[in-house]
Structures are given as C-alpha cells and as structure tokens.
Amino acid sequence: MRGLIPARLRGDIPTVPVVRLSGAIGISSPLKPGLTVAGLARSLERAFSMKNIRAVALTINSPGGAAAQSHLIHRRIRSLADEHKVPVLAFVEDVAASGGYMIACAADEIIADPSSVVGSIGVVGASFGFDKLLEKIGVERRLYTSGENKAMLDPFMPEKPEDVERLKSLQREIHECFIALVKQRRGSKLDSRETDLFTGAYWTGQRSRELGLVDSIGDLRTVLRERFGDKVRTPMIAERGLSLLGRRAAGVSGLGFPTSASLADDMVSTLEARAIWSRYGL
Questions:
Q1: Is the pLDDT of residue 5 over 50?
Q2: Helices (H), ranges, the chain
Q3: Which of 49, 150, 189, 253 is catalytic?
Q4: What pTM does this model have?
C-alpha cells in the first residue's frame, strides 16, 4: 500500500523544500520585481510549513542591493527557522555578496561552489552630478524646499562636503550593523587574522571557506543526497500568481500589455541591477 501513496504525503521520504533567491535586492519595476521581503513572504511561509521536512534549502544568487530589504529578508528567514525549529542550508551559486551574503548568513550552514563570489561586507552608494551640464546648456535649476537638508545631495546641484559627510555617517552606521550581524552568525568560524573581512572585499568560494565566510564547498543536489539519501525530495517553492492576462498589475494595461511608464521603470531598474552585478565581473 505504501507504493500507492504519493511521495509528497509519505513521512518516510525526506523532504527539503528549496526557495530560490536570485537577483538584486530591493530593485524592482512593474515587470521585473527584485528580491523583497514582501515578494518572498509567501514562498518562505510555504517552505517552512511543509510537513515532514528535514531542512529548508536556499539557493542564493544575488549581488546585494537595498540594505533594509536584505536585513528584513534575513530576519524573516531566521524567525521562521526558529518558529518551526527547522535548520536552514544556504547554497551559493554565482554570487552571494553584500546584501546577498547578509541573507546567506540567515542559514545555519553556508555551502558555496569553489568559483562562487562571496563577501563584500560593506555599504556603497552612487549617484551622478549634472550641475555643470545644466550650466553648459543654459538650464537653471529651481528647487523649493522647507528644511535646510531637504534637498541634500540633489544631483542637479553642486555637491556640498557637509552633505557627503552626512551620507558617509549613515553608511558607517549601516556598515557597523552589517559587521555585527556577520560576527553574530558566523562567530568563531571567522578567520580573525584576515584584516580585509569587513572592508567590502570579496573572495572565491574556496577562499571564503578558508576565511570562515562559508562552511563547505558543494552543490545542492550532491549535498542533500549525501545527507538525506538518494530519494530526498527537493520541491521548488515558487510564488503562486496569475499571468499578466489573468489580472491587471501595476504598470500593465487592461489588455496585459506593459505601459510606456512601466517600460521606462523596467529599463532603469535593469541598468541599476546590471551595475551591481558588474562589480563582481558578472
């Protein structure tokens, strides 16, 4: 009779649901959502709520992005793991850098490929300055505010040293929080002799194992089969949703076609994400 019961309902077959975390964090558009805690909430809930699971696996391929969203995703994973008392395994694919590594630290164990890119424990911000261009083409910038710092770092105004220092102060605070999180999660596994650990530097998966940033080298299929047997089930947990023709989404017309505004947003988001990936040669 056991053979007639679907594998997903049998308690004797180990199950490890897999949640894929791929893309830049927090950088979204109507047609190309990035990784956010809101977008991942249902997938994570479904994964941890499955019956008879031995662990939850995360496949991570992210160059980072928004600091707050990275931390919120990290906290949601830890909250669910503690609530359900289920271990979490993170498998790094191409890259787990910056916010991507912060998310990986939510796992009880981090496994990487020898050629993965891991680390970049730091904070970065970027912008452009157009004030000289406006002057050259004869355009006058008119900006009206209430509050002396309301227009801080406006890209169409000359840069002020005090504004830059204020931004750097914020970055230092966020960086300190990031460092504390990594130390809390990785503890004595970290190589305290490595002075570049928290400078924003990054390494291969092989070197990251030596530094204590990851625990071992391997891949999802091999590791899970070694630990839970050849019959281990690894259902991929994805968001349930309707197609564009099935519902009207933000930035999409009633006929299911993207609007010009959504296309513009998507282009900007793509460029931003591409810039983040390019930091790691990807």
A1: yes
A2: 37-49, 67-84, 99-104, 131-137, 161-186, 205-211, 220-228, 260-278
A3: 150
A4: 0.81
